[in-house]
Amino acid sequence: MNYKNFPMVPRIIFGRGSFNQLGDILAPKRLSINAPFIYLVDDVFKSNAFITSRISLSYDDKIIYVSSEEEPKTSQVDELVEDIILMTKERPSGIIGIGGGTMLDLAKAVAIMLTNEGEAKDYQGWDLVKNPAIYHVGIPTISGTGAEVSRTTVLTGPDKKLGINSDYTPFDQVILDPELTKEVPKDQWFYTGMDCYIHCIESLQGTYLNTFSQSYGEMALELCKEVFLGDKLSTKDSQDKLMMASWHGGMSIVYSQVGVAHAMSYGLSYLLGTKHGIGNCIVFDHLEEFYPEGVKLFKAMKEKHNIHLPKGICANLSDKELDIMINISLSLEPLWENALGKNWKKVMTPKKLKELYKKM
Ligand code: NAD
Ligand code: ZN
Question: Which UniProt keywords apply (predicted)?
Fold first, then answer.
């Protein structure tokens, strides 16, 4: 057995208000006055002083506001890298991503592509990155994806939706300040939070499970239950706990994999642009057959928070469109193998997958 040797986020700060320390954390990392820090910030914060007034810009530092309306694309990463090269005198001192999974993934990908030749699409896959990325910092403002700890950055490219999985992908520094999540809209809180819950279920029910993944997964699952099913938590405690659940959920899949819901929601996302959080929810709602207990609890959480998921999003798709989705989904072999075991192809045939999609 050859065990994988994974990198981890080497520095992490946790606490309400810890975002105030950003300037102190970055100062020693400045390479020269011509090598700026570039902040990639979700444009939802453009006129939000709570975040922006606490980013202090010196020398040539810049904030680039980016919309998270759509999930990151390889072409978008290439454009950002091009813009940054043109606007800076020297290679930047660092890239700081502030936002949800979308901004965190963009920051990771941009940091990689500033030191690696070619286009982002060339690096979608496993261990294709040759040079270390520039220093990059992740600051989540919504909890659930685990993108703050993961070794991947999920990108939609011209012919696939696949991450850049590499030892250079994880952040050099993460700031976990749960207070930053205080204005997340309720439905989005649920969808992104459920991404974490689904990570736990898929990891804990998977065939790749081991004690490393199990211990993180169980911790994250307990926190999710407290947050989404309990009645005792204050708003602050709930924000704190969900942020830690996201972290642990992400740690759990470092050494295992996600499963059926993720494999299917990648198909939805590729064809219809359905976003990760809500897409996972739409899919998971129909997966009793694979995750009976997990889906039961999911439905209880949905009920409790009065969440109404879209229905019939695949009802009017042509066979050709369904086939595109099915191909994208079935290409994610490790996810299916984790979910259903070595003989997964016998269980999840294209026909079976089509039936499932048609229910959604
Ligand atoms: P997101 O980043 O797309 O944000 C969702 C919405 O919430 C956006 O409208 C955003 O503007 C808003 N928002 C974020 N923080 C806010 C705040 N504090 N106040 C008000 N509004 C706020 O959503 P997400 O669910 O965090 O991320 C999804 C993305 O993460 C997908 O692209 C997915 O592929 C990726 N992802 C990556 C990994 C990984 O390991 N790299 C894992 C899971 C998901
Ligand atoms: Zn996910």
Answer: Oxidoreductase
Strand partners, 12: 174
In this structure, which ligand is nearest to the CA of 105? 1
Q: Which ligand is nearest to the CA of 335?
A: 2
CB 187 within 8 A of CB 248: no
105 lines ligand 1 (CB under 6 A): yes
Residue 100 Cβ contacting ligand 1 at under 6 Å:
yes
Per DSSP, the three-state class of 95 is strand
116 C-beta closer than 6 A to ligand 1: no
Distance from residue 8's CA to the centre of ligand 1 (Å): 21
Per-residue pLDDT tens for 194-220?
A: 999 999 999 999 999 999 999 999 999
Cα of 4 to ligand 2 centre, how many Å? 21
Percent of the chain with pLDDT over 70: 100
**Cα 336 to ligand 1 centroid, rounded to whole Å:** 24
Range name among 106-120, 147-161, 220-234, 294-308 with the lowest pLDDT average: 147-161
Amino acid at 193: G
99 lines ligand 1 (CB under 6 A): yes
Residue 160 pLDDT level (bands cut at 50, 70, 90): confident
DSSP at 304? H
pLDDT tens-digit readout, 258-289: 999 999 999 999 999 999 999 999 999 999 99
State if residue 183 touches ligand 1 by the CB under 6 angstroms criterion.
yes
Q: Phi/psi zone of residue 165: left (φ > 0), alpha (ψ -120 to 50 degrees), beta? A: beta
